[in-house]
Amino acid sequence: MFNKVGTVSVYVSDQDRAKDFYINTLGFELVTDQPLFPGATTRWVSVVPKKGVETELILYVPDENWEHYKQVVGKSQSITLDVTDIMALIAELKKKGVRVTSEPDPQPWGTNAMILDSEGNTILLVETPKK
Fold first, then answer.
1. In Å, what is the CA distance from 81 to each residue of 41, 55, 66, 115?
2. Which of 40, 87, 99, 118 could crosslink 36 through cysteines, CB 3.0-4.6 Å?
3. Is 27's pLDDT higher than 90?
4. pLDDT tens digit string along 40-97?
5. Mean pLDDT in residue range 111-116
6. Coil, helix or strand for 17?
7. How far apart, in whole angstroms, are the C-alpha atoms of residue 125 and residue 111?
8. Could you tell me if residue 32 is left (phi over 0), alpha (psi between -120 and 50 degrees) or otherwise beta?
9. pLDDT, tens only, 118-130
């Protein structure tokens, strides 16, 4: 039996810069920041939008075991973040210097917008319609 989606990786080139962006710009909370293994040069850095959220975003630098992911840093990572009040959120993110690549676009399934994170990864924001 499957219980939940535990983690989703966002591939980055600079974990410290990405961690700063997700925590200090987007307001995410740090869950874990530790070496991948003793002596590792990269870390397991995970963040969540708020306490109690079970699925963590892993800010992962592709190492020799995951080199094939180096090509996706700075591209769309197929990450969708569920948001509320997308218009206010986009205005707030713009004030913080976040690059908005697609303004809020109302659709029958919800309003969506796209932003770029500190690494150039495209992140889709979606506000589902109120019922």
1. 29, 11, 24, 11
2. 40
3. yes
4. 888 999 999 998 888 999 999 987 777 888 888 887 778 899 999 999 999 999 999 9
5. 96
6. helix
7. 8
8. beta
9. 999 999 999 998 8
Per the listing, tokens 């397991």 go with 44
pLDDT at 43: 93
DSSP string, 55-124: PEEEEE---GGGGGGGGGTTSEEEEEEE-S-HHHHHHHHHHTTPEEEEEEEEETTEEEEEEE-TTS-EEE
For the segment 6-23, the average pLDDT, to the nearest whole number, is 95
Amino acid at 123: I
Give the HSE-up count for residue 118: Cα atoms under 13 Å, Cβ half-sphere.
17
> Angle 26-27-30 (CA atoms, 0-180°, nearest 5)?
115
- Tell me how far apart the alpha carbons of residues 30 and 57 are, in angstroms, rounded to a whole number: 10
In the chain, the domains with their CATH numbers are 7-127 (3.10.180.10)
Q: CB 19: neighbour CB atoms within 10 A? A: 20
Token duo for residue 72: 């996706």
The answer to whether residue 25 scores a pLDDT higher than 70 is yes
